[in-house]
Each structure stands twice: as C-alpha cells, then as structure tokens.
Design a protein that fits this description.
Radius of gyration: 25 Å
Distance between the termini: 67 Å
Number of domains: 2
Shape: elongated
Number of helices: 3
Strand order of the largest sheet: 1-2
Structural class: alpha+beta
CATH topology of the largest domain: Alpha-Beta Plaits
Strand content: 15-25%
CATH class of the largest domain: Alpha Beta
Length: 124
Amino acid sequence: MRNSNHKSSGGRRLVTINFFSHAVSAFFRKFASKEIYRQSLSLSTLKPMPKVKGAVTVDEGRCKGCDLCVVACPADVLMLQPKEVNDRGYHFAFAARPDACIGCAACATVCPDACIEVYRVVLP
C-alpha cells in the first residue's frame, strides 16, 4: 500500500510538498509575535469609506450585442436594446438602470470590443 504523499513516476518516487502551506505557516511564526499585529484599532483611528457611485457609457455604434456585459453586471444595470439596432445591425447594450451602478467595471472588463467605459464618482 502506498503512502498518499508519494507518487511514482518512471520508477522514481516523487514527494509532493505543499509549498504554500509551509510559506504561510513560516510567515505567521515569524510575524505573529510582533507588536504591530497585536495592536487593536480604535474607532477614532478608522476613517469612513467614501460613498462611490458608478457611471457607465456604452459606445452604441461599436457594440455588437454579445450580451457578455449584461451577464457580468452584478447590479443588473445593463440591458440589450430590444427594439433599436445600431449602424452595424446589432441590438446594442445600454444602461437601463444607471442609478444602480456600483462602479465595479465588470462589464468593461468582459467587453470584447472595449466599447464600455465605467467612471466612479465620489459622493460628498
């Protein structure tokens, strides 16, 4: 019966070592005793995160309506235009609910034609 840590390869036995777990445990052994990591944060030192709203613009002339941006959007901001087509004959994406945009830029990341731009606006 073989040990589960060993694999045979051409008559040689290779030992599999999980380097990541060793590196993580070495890191914690080295830095866990440091005073920096033991300090507790007080509420007076924490800063509130700014409120951010997103704004999406779609270049409707270049959009080919592949629907990838609609699926990628976690806030359901984008939809394909059901009744209109662009100059190339495609139903293009548009911001159906622009106020719901969180500015994550997932839609712009998956767009194969790079026709989506996302802006983040910091609210006062």
